[in-house]
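2024-03-11 09:14:02 INFO worker-7 job=invfold-0412 stage=load source=structure_tokens
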């Protein structure tokens, strides 16, 4: 079993100073980035009147370069690019995180399982099981793009 990442503790003011307003909202206040553009085109029959919804912020949704995805708050490595797949949901999807890097906890309503950075507690998104995606774990880590930063494979190995 891999060792847990070092704990990162900051005050709300310190987090606000280093994160953008959107990153603070998602990572520290458990928000969700907009993905309306992707949902509209993936599920037009559900949202037929939403043809002009704005493009979502999920810039890593259709991004498949080789590297590592780190926590945008504390830079802890979370996911290898080799675990990323196209789930069609509009957010980046991974089938597993790096060992010890991600914590899971049930949402207060018990309907979903939240995933957070094990080092800083930043909200990443949610994990879903049993959806039938052709991945080894039968899991989908649905991650907000704003919650992660991509480090290319060359930079990650330096």
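2024-03-11 09:14:09 INFO worker-7 stage=emit residues=158
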């Amino acid at each position: 079993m891999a060792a847990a990442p070092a704990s990162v503790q900051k005050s709300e003011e310190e987090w606000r100073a280093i994160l953008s307003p959107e990153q603070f909202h998602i990572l520290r206040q458990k928000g969700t980035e907009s993905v309306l553009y992707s949902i509209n085109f993936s599920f037009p029959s559900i949202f037929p009147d939403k043809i002009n919804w704005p493009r979502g912020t999920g810039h890593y949704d259709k991004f498949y370069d080789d590297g590592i995805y780190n926590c945008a708050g504390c830079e802890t490595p979370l996911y290898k690019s080799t675990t990323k797949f196209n789930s069609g949901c509009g957010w980046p999807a991974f089938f597993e995180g790096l060992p010890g890097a991600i914590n899971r906890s049930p949402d207060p309503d018990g309907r979903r399982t939240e995933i957070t950075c094990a080092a800083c507690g930043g909200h990443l998104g949610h994990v879903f099981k049993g959806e039938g995606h052709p991945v080894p774990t039968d899991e989908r880590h649905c991650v907000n793009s704003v919650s992660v930063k991509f480090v290319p494979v060359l930079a990650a190995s330096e």
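2024-03-11 09:14:09 INFO worker-7 stage=report msg="The two ends are 25 Å apart (CA to CA)."
2024-03-11 09:14:10 INFO worker-7 job finished
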